[in-house]
Amino acid sequence: MTSPTLTVAASAKNATKKYGKDEGVVYALNNVSVDFYSGQFTAIMGPSGSGKSTLMHCIAGLDELTEGTAVIDNVELSTLSDKNLTQLRREKIGFIFQSFNLVPTLTAEENIRLPLMLGNNKGDEEWIQRVISTVHLNDRLTHRPSELSGGQQQRVAVARALASKPRIILADEPTGNLDSTTGSEILKFMRMAVDELGQTIVMVTHDPVAAAYADRIVFLADGKIAGEMLEPTAEKVLDRMKSLGN
Amino acid sequence: MFRIALKSIVGRKARLVLTSLAVILGTAFLSGTSVFSATLDRTFNNLFEDVFKNIDGYVRSTQVVEGDFGLIERQRIPADYVDKVLSVPGVSDAVPDIQAFARIVGKDGKPIGTEGAGPPTFGSVAVEFKGALWTIAEGKFPKGPTEVALDEASAEKAGYVLGDKVKVVAQSGSRTFTLVGIASYGDVRSPGGATFALFDVPTAAEFLGKPGFVDAILVVGDGSRSDDALAKDIDAIFEPSQKVETLTGAEITKETQDDIGQALSFFSIFLTIFSVIALGVGSFVIYNVFSISAAQRQKENALLRALGANRAQITRSMLIESIVVGLFGSLLGFVGGIGISKLLSVALPALGFDLPSGGLVISASILINTVIVGLVVTVLSAVLPARRAGKVPPLAAMRATAIETAGPGRVRLFWGLGSMLVGLGIIGAVIGGSSNNLLGFGVLFVFIGTIVIGPSIARPVALFLGRPAETLRGVTGQMARQNAARNPKRTSRTSAPVLIGVALVTAVSALAASINGQIADIFTEQFKGDYAVNSNAQGFGGLSPDLATTLSSIDGVNDASGIGTVLTKINDKGRTLIVITPSSIGGNYDIGLVNADYSVLDKDGILISESLAERDNLKIGSVIPVTFGDGVTRDLTVRALYVHNDLAGDRVISRETFANTTVSSFDFSIYVTLEKGADNEKVRAELQKAVDEYGQGKLLSRDEYIDEQAGQVNQLLGLIYGLLALSVIIAIVGIIITLLLSVFERQREIGLLRAVGMTRSQVRTTVRWESVITSLLGAVVGILLGLGLGWVIVFALRDQGLTSFQIPVGSTVFIMVMSFVVGVLAAVYPAWRATKVDMLDALNTN
Ligand SMILES: Nc1ncnc2c1ncn2[C@@H]1O[C@H](COP(=O)(O)OP(=O)(O)OP(=O)(O)O)[C@@H](O)[C@H]1O
Ligand SMILES: [Mg+2]
After folding, report:
1. Hey, are the CB atoms on B757 and A118 less than 8 Å from each other?
2. Residue B438 has what pLDDT?
């Protein structure tokens, strides 16, 4: 499943994120170092408030680290101007959020092509068609988000994340708002994107079943790395979570 | 509930500030113009109190003729009355006063001051006198026929210093004097921006008026009796037949103040109209802001409803908020108004209108008025949104986003179209022959209909107008287009100020263009001369009748004929008559005499228009008694009728009628025809030389003259630009507020876009184009409406001789460009705010 030599798609080194000052200081991330490998589906788990979202945001260049570095595709984010950072997000990162993923005034297809259009980029048409048909959205392309179900909306988000062939896809609880059937549909699709399309995905989740779709799980607790697990199953994850005090 | 309302206000300071901004805008103009009017009133009152401070009596003729436009001419009195007054016991000093038209010619040969428009230009008397109006700031009082003094401001403007030769133009021609004094009036350098050339009494009488006559006598008492008693004593020495009256110092002060007050009241009415428009349009902005904020609070309100609040409570809490906003906004508006009036009082002197010094008049009554008006307008504007807020179903708390109900609504369409149809029906009826008075209602119904339909057409029109943005800007343009169309109600309300302003401006432009074309036609038909010397003096002053004589003696000139006006009284009504010289006017000016030529008009004759003949049942041979400025009534016999009364008015007389009397009359134009085969270039040069020498008037060829006459309507443009500026300001603020509220509302969306790769400049582009589309939406509908309105006005004026409607192409293009610029300008701050949106908000799943 994993290739013998792993290349690093994104990483954080000694990443620290502090909120507040002096007495009231909160360490959302406390000296975290972690690598995410190309062609792998990685899940991040941990109790609520453990810093999962913060880690994702910092790796995506949406937020700045207090100390340490975040690197995507060998580029250190803190060295980039806002303009270059925006370009990097547009070209190298795909996002899937828990909700409010889509621009309400654009159709499903326009939402899928949004990052490409913003970059005045036609993109790889064959690839886009393949993505669209894989997520079974062909008959929904001209609909507005308000005319789509929650699951369909998430599928559009997944398609958007894939459409520009990004270096890495970051997903923060992409199935958090979905019922289990729809959720597993999305997860299967993400799994397939990794296996068949060679994508790199990092996903935050609370759900052991969802995490079981990943190749590797990174555990966070109190802003620190609390361990890893390879080839996870739902049961193994559940046990581990219990020990983390969730 | 009251506490919840207050909490909600304090909790959203940004919203409070934005809503208040709309109120401030509406009330600032109101209080600003009030403060300014009050200030003007007081400063002029103080000025005249100062000026007449030492005057105890004012002797003048009781004989007055009034012209058409409130112009008056008071008969002069013989200069030797001064000695009679001086002999009255109790009189310590008395001097004559003369005030008449005179223009100072600058060093460059051009007269200073604006003719026709702007403050008047006077010649008057300056002598040493206890009650002197004029004091000498530099040099001495003028003495003898070659000396002049100027008011300080004019001397400075023209760059004259003591000892310079100064040319002055008056009724009797132009003459050059030596400048011996610089004078000031009360404590101002020139009263109200008027220019003054000052002489001693004999020179003034001879040069400005008639030798041996003066306008009035200023009297200073010796203190032995009251002003009233002194006035009675002076009156007693005159026979009733001499028709002289004596006013006390207090009376002449009061009369002058009232006269000025009247003149200023036009100004105040004008300013009030502007502030009412500002307030009306501003109330749209207020209404819009409350509607948006009600929509944005839908969830919050729904939650309150779900927790047990009833409709009335929700509505009441919004009304309480509107009261707080109204109070807060109008108080700030009052402060802003003080700033506006300060600005006006700085701007006016810069435009050559020298105001007497004195602080602003800020009274409690202006404050109270402003707050009451502001409060009422705000609360009224909030009533509908508040009621709508109360109707929110508790279930809405569970809904995802707080988008305003977008449905265009059949009911709305029905009422809007209905109102428009009623309006069009009325207009149609008027065209079909009903009374013109109904037109106003027709227009009003169409306007209301358009505003009501607004939300229904906003979406398709915005989508249509946004098409170029999408082609030009790709996905950002597309999003701007969709954003402009997504809340049609909001977009149409936001564009309403643009719409109203543009409609008004377009209508006035169309009217101006139509009048313009009409005038050109009339002049082309009736003016037959090759050249014209024109003065723009409107009723006061103009060209000396001698100039025409001078011009006709130039080689190559066939005829040079002056056309002037004279004020008279007919049947106790003031009438301005046209004065011509029958012997020379023939080839120059065609008024369409019926079966006659100008030679029938003699000293005792009058020509009248056919329409007057019909109205007053007059015919050739009828006798009309006409009272002139010298108090003499002359019986004039109708010699002929004429057709064209659009330029000549209804009555034309000969210059001979009042030759060698004290009646004053100026020419406003001199028409010139050349001899056949005359060297055009050479004659023009000669004419120009003579006009330059005289010092006033503008020499124009036939075409130039017709163009200029037609172009006079462009003075209406001043009004247009005022309206335009006002609506531009309000429109910009309105759009800024709406965009800011939309940006706040779309924070998550903007954050999401930024996250998936939209650059800051793309965010700005999106907001900017949305703004431009909104502005253009108002402009396009406004232009259509304005053209319609203009057509209707022109139609209503058909009886006044306005027959052809013309589309103001230039203005329309200008307005489109302006509304584009308005859109871009209004977007600057909201677009910047949009780039500051925190991306993490979009990801914040809560
Ligand atoms: N803007 C902020 N200001 C202060 N503290 C913050 C801020 N954002 C996050 N935190 C804190 O940082 C810590 C990590 O937050 P983060 O959102 O990364 O947690 P999480 O692991 O994603 O939790 P969850 O599973 O609930 O989403 C939390 O203790 C949180 O309270
Ligand atoms: Mg989180």
Report:
1. yes
2. 79
Nearest to B683 by CA among B782, B798, B557: B557
Three-state SS at B716: helix
Ligand 1 — pocket residues by CB below 6 A? A 19, 26, 28, 46, 48-54
Task: Give residue B5's pLDDT.
Answer: 62
Q: Under DSSP, is residue B797 helix (H, G, I), strand (E, B) or coil? A: helix
Provide the residue type at B235 as one letter: D
Instruction: Quickly tell me which residue has 């030769």 as its tokens.
Output: B165
Classify residue B437 by burial, with Cβ atoms within 10 Å: 0-12, 13-18, 19+.
Answer: exposed
- SS3 for A44-62 is EECCCCCCHHHHHHHHCCC
**B762 and A118 in contact by Cβ < 8 A?**
yes
Chain B residues touching residue A160 (CB < 8 angstroms): 756
Domains of chain A: 39-53+75-244 (3.40.50.300)
Q: Which helix (H) or strand (E) holds A193?
A: helix A180-197
CB contact burial B802-824 (16+ within 10 A = b; e otherwise): beebbbbeebbeebbebbeebbe
Tell me what pLDDT residue B2 has: 60
Q: Which residue has the higher pLDDT, B402 or B704?
A: B704
Q: Which two tokens stand for residue B218?
A: 């200023």
Q: How far is CA A26 from CA A23, A30, B322, in A?
A: 9, 9, 41
Q: What is the residue-averaged pLDDT of chain B?
A: 83
DSSP B340-375: HHHHHHHHHHHTT--PPP------HHHHHHHHHHHH
- Please state the atom number of ligand 1 nearest to the C-alpha of residue A20: 4
pLDDT at B358: 60
The residue count for chain A: 246
Are the Cβ atoms of B475 and A82 closer than 8 angstroms?
no
Q: Which residues pair with B65 in a beta bridge?
A: B73
Rounded CA separation B738/B733 (Å): 9
Q: What is the pLDDT of residues A150-196, one digit of tens each?
A: 888 888 998 999 888 899 999 988 888 788 888 888 899 889 889 98
Tokens of B473: 């800007």
DSSP character at residue B799 = G
Å from CA of A56 to ligand 2 middle? 9
ipTM for this prediction: 0.85
Contact A30, A65 (CB under 8 A): no
Task: Report yes or no: B721 and B752 within 8 Å, Cβ to Cβ.
Answer: no
Q: Which ligand 1 atom is at minimum distance from the Cα of A47?
A: 25
CA distance B368 to B430: 43
How far is Cα A226 from Cα A145, in angstroms, rounded to an integer? 38
How many A from CA of A172 to the centre of ligand 2?
7
A229 Cα to chain B: minimum distance (Å): 27
Nearest CA in chain B to A166: B756
Answer with the residue of higher pLDDT: A200 or A99: A200
In tens, the pLDDT along B418-429 reads 998 998 888 888
What is the three-state SS of B84-133? HHHCCCCEEEEEEECEEEEEEECCCCCECCCCCCCCCEEEEECCCCCCCC
Among A233, A236, A230, which residue's Cα sits nearest to residue A218? A230
E strand or H helix at B495, and its extent?
Answer: helix B488-526
The alpha carbon of B843 and the centre of ligand 2 are apart by a number of angstroms equal to 9
Average pLDDT for residues B795-817, to the nearest whole number?
82
What token pair was written down for A54?
């913060």
Worst-scoring range by mean pLDDT, B113-122, B166-175, B206-215, B291-300? B113-122
Residue-wise pLDDT tens digits, B86-122 = 888 888 888 888 888 888 888 887 777 665 445 677 8
Residue B538 has pLDDT above 60, yes or no: no
CA B145 to chain centre: 40
